[in-house]
Amino acid sequence: MELLLTQVAKKKSWPFHGEIIDFQIAQRDNILTVLEVIYNQFCNPMFRQFLRYSWQKTGYIDGYIARRETEFDTPVESCFPKDSATICEHPGCQILSFIRCSYCSSLFCFNHFIVNKHIHQ
Asked: What are the residue ranges spanned by the domains of the chain?
């Protein structure tokens, strides 16, 4: 364990269930990767009511908010359900997942969701 921590300190990489992932969040390309994946998830039509409600509630757009328009799943409820801490659904991966894709409802670990850019068109 001490050797792993020493390697992480030298490389400034993340320990990931015994593996070292070379993903430094402070690098511009990695920040853009995270934003790209998050933007792609928010483009799912299932979040349309959530985004519209957010803009209306903050006063940026006018309009009446009907009761049925306030009934939606938030990104936390949709992408981070209580049962999301299971094995990653990427073939051959045995690492715990941390997020559910809003498009395909598959559960993915950090490596297969963010680092490998799980994006839907």
From this structure: 29-115
